[in-house]
């Protein structure tokens, strides 16, 4: 209840498929990590971390 009063939203975990789709958006022309992170309501640092992990696995 306090989260609602303070304007905080509950965290939503992203599935691996969602993470990959978000990472791939950063690779589209005209898109950058900060913009994509803002679109999805996540911190740019988290998206940079996901992108680094994705690149290491590829």
TrEMBL record:
Output the Gene Ontology terms for molecular function.
sequence-specific DNA binding; transposase activity
* Coiled-coil region(s): none
Give one GO biological process term: DNA transposition
Q: Which Gene3D superfamilies match?
A: Homeodomain-like
Question: Which Pfam families does its entry note?
Answer: HTH_Tnp_1 (PF01527)
| Protein name stated in the entry | Transposase
Q: Please tell me the species this chain comes from.
A: Klebsiella pneumoniae
């Amino acid at each position: 209840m306090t989260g609602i009063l303070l304007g905080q939203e509950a965290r939503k975990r992203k599935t691996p498929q969602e993470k990959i789709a978000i990472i791939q958006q950063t690779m589209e022309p005209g898109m950058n990590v900060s913009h994509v992170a803002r679109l999805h309501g996540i911190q740019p640092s988290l998206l940079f971390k996901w992108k680094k992990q994705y690149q290491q696995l590829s």
